């Protein structure tokens, strides 16, 4: 009897440990930046301004768990040194949350790194790459970070307005899948008027 209880306890402990393990250990591998498109002739001055986050795709995104998310906006403010002050305005607990960071130009136009990365001790690297944009309607931006020795990547579908055409959304889905993501890794936002136009 005592041995049976001990075995049952060990089995339950194993189940709890496996459930508690971080689901990110099975992340889809991040592509090399060289395999991600880069907007030809990227123009920093035309990219600045407000963008609405219409879609997200990434190796840590799970549609099954997250479903749709509340739209948020991101403002790219161009500085004299061609870096951007980037402010994302999110709806959180019926209030507005501001997430501010700096994107510093990298070796190629349209590529950026996170400024003051030392302020984020768990982040070993952070890269941003504008894959494609027409500057006045949409943009698809690739983000890659190494956080606590795990490599995450996501693609953000930005719109200058809160709604984008079904064709642009489908183009976004095809792009995400070309980087190895599945349907479950792609979600679209629910438009809102709260916070995001501040």
Task: Lay out the secondary structure.
Layout: H1 2-20, H2 44-47, E1 49-58, H3 63-66, E2 69-70, E3 73-78, E4 84-92, E5 95-105, E6 111-114, E7 123-133, E8 138-147, E9 150-159, H4 166-178, E10 186-190
Task: Describe it.
By secondary structure, this protein is of the alpha+beta class. The protein is built from 4 helices and 10 strands. An 8-stranded antiparallel β-barrel has the order 1-3-4-5-6-7-8-9. A hairpin with a 2-residue loop joins strand 4 and strand 5 (95-105). The longest helix has 19 residues, at 2-20. The chain is globular.
Average predicted confidence as pLDDT = 87
The low-pLDDT segments are 1-22
- Main sheet record: 8 strands, antiparallel, barrel
Query: Which radius of gyration do the C-alpha atoms yield?
Result: 20 Å
Structural class: alpha+beta
User: Which strands sit side by side, in order, in the main sheet?
Assistant: 1-3-4-5-6-7-8-9
